């Protein structure tokens, strides 16, 4: 196959670095020139051997202006082998392994290095504090540092209504009704103020968020603060609670009937309002639009596997340290 | 939240009341914000049919936050009150309440009631001048 040399005259360094990922014409064997002023240097800037398109690199090659390869410890295994391993694992496991959602970067043009470093910081925190698996709809008990409280900590029990953000900024909202007063607290998962996160009841709901609980009858948000944890047997799939919540009379904080939520009862909404709902719901072809889909699908398969590999490595390290301790 | 019902004369026979909201809701505590009294004072308990509303906020911006003193109109009289819970989200890790809660205060700053029935945000406790309020509080969140 003839080697095609690309010499970009007008492209800026940034655009050039993305060429390898964006250009459909190039295959992996092509050598990309570093800059428009080719001073006789034909060799690719970083590695001695050009990468094949089968290899999964831990980090992108072009990192710094002086073309030094970053010494980030990441295993180089062929994509085929990785895929085979994952397929094997899937056959062995009946349950899909939980991968925490905040390690998948959001849509858009982002610095992969910064994302990688942020993920590593997240894993470092997880070595110190156990952040369990939980979903929107799970019941949690959060113990937080509080200088004014008696034992210098305060505990709040509630139902998780939302999970947001990437990396160290990852947050979740807990809702509860205490003494007839509904309240919500937004906790940052990786904040050093969080001492303990217990999952009292591990379950999922049919919706991505439960913000409508503010307008639902208070019984659906009331969690007993002295509730005993319900242990989830390992290896069992996480149960999905398909409860349909009854709402308070209108007005609501938002027009929930327009949101396509499965967990709330919109039977009380008037016909005239329901008629306008279709104008606000995306048509099927727009829903299939990849750009508008859940951020996870914006990541290339290569990057997604890389992230999942990092998570695997971290989980193995956790297990190792747990075994050492015990 | 509250919708002003407007009498539509043209549609009186078919639909006597046409309800639509005319102002965008403001989640901060400002002039005319309706508030909920959460202590066990007699005045607070009696003002059910016409909820108390804010007529002045004692700070520079006149936008009330947690811990601010406000002047409320309650049962035809003016009374000072302390904001102990807001609907507008504040700092992370601090609670956001479903209602804007107040406790009534005397002119000297002492609370009118003897007990606060709902939880109070723990972050308020760094305010040392509100020690009398914390003495009557039952639960901190």
TrEMBL record, chain B:
Please give the Gene Ontology molecular function terms for this protein.
structural constituent of ribosome
Q: Where does the record place it? A: Mitochondrion
> What broad taxonomic lineage does this protein's source fall under?
Eukaryota, Metazoa, Echinodermata, Eleutherozoa, Echinozoa
Q: Which CDD domains does the record match to this protein?
A: Ribosomal_uL14
Alphabetically sorted, this entry's keywords are: Mitochondrion, Ribonucleoprotein, Ribosomal protein, Transit peptide
InterPro entries per the UniProt record, alphabetical = Ribosomal_uL14 (IPR000218), Ribosomal_uL14_sf (IPR036853)
Q: What is this protein called?
A: Large ribosomal subunit protein uL14m
Q: Which SUPFAM superfamilies match?
A: Ribosomal protein L14
Q: Which HAMAP family match?
A: Ribosomal_uL14
The record's comment on protein family reads: Belongs to the universal ribosomal protein uL14 family.
Q: Which domain of life is it from?
A: Eukaryota
Organism, by scientific name, is Stichopus japonicus
GO BP term, example: translation
Name where it mostly resides: mitochondrion
Q: Name one GO cellular component term.
A: ribosome
């Amino acid at each position: 196959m003839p080697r095609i040399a690309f010499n970009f005259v007008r492209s800026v360094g940034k655009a050039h670095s993305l060429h390898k990922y964006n250009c459909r014409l190039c295959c992996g064997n092509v050598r990309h020139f570093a800059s428009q002023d080719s001073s006789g240097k034909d060799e690719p800037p970083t590695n001695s051997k050009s990468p094949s398109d089968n290899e999964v690199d831990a980090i992108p090659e072009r990192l710094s202006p002086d073309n030094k390869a970053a010494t980030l410890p990441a295993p180089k295994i062929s994509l085929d082998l990785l895929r085979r391993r994952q397929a094997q694992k899937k056959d062995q496991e009946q349950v899909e392994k939980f991968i925490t959602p905040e390690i998948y970067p959001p849509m858009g043009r982002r610095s992969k290095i910064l994302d990688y470093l942020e993920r590593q910081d997240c894993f470092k925190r997880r070595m110190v504090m156990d952040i369990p698996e939980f979903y929107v709809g799970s019941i949690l008990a959060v113990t937080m540092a509080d200088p004014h409280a008696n034992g210098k900590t305060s505990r709040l029990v509630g139902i998780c209504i939302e999970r947001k953000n990437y990396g160290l900024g990852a947050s979740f909202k807990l809702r509860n009704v205490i003494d007839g007063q509904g309240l919500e607290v937004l906790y940052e998962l990786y904040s050093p103020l969080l001492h303990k996160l217990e999952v009292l009841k591990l379950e999922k709901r049919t919706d991505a968020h439960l913000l409508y609980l503010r307008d639902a009858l208070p019984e659906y948000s009331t969690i007993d603060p002295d509730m005993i944890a319900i242990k989830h047997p390992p290896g069992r799939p996480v149960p999905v609670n398909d409860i349909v919540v009854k709402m308070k009379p209108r007005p609501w904080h938002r027009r929930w009937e327009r949101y396509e939520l499965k967990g709330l009862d919109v039977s009380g909404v008037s016909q005239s309002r329901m008629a306008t709902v279709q104008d606000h719901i995306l048509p099927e072809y727009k829903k299939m639009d990849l750009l508008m889909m859940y951020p996870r699908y914006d990541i290339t398969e290569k990057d997604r596997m890389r992230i999942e590999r990092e998570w695997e490595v971290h989980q193995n390290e956790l297990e190792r340290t747990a075994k050492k301790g015990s | 939240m509250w919708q002003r019902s407007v009498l539509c004369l043209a549609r009186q026979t078919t639909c006597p009341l046409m309800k639509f909201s005319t102002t965008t809701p403001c989640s901060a505590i400002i002039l005319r914000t309706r508030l909920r009294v959460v202590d066990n004072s007699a005045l607070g308990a009696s003002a059910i049919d016409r909820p108390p509303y804010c007529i002045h906020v004692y700070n520079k911006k006149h936008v009330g936050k947690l811990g601010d003193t406000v002047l409320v109109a309650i049962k035809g009289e003016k009374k000072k009150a302390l904001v102990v819970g807001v609907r507008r989200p504040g700092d992370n890790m601090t609670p956001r309440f479903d209602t804007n809660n107040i406790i009534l205060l005397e002119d000297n700053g002492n609370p009118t009631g003897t007990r606060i029935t709902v939880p109070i945000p723990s972050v308020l406790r760094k305010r040392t001048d509100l020690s009398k309020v914390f003495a009557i509080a039952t639960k901190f969140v």
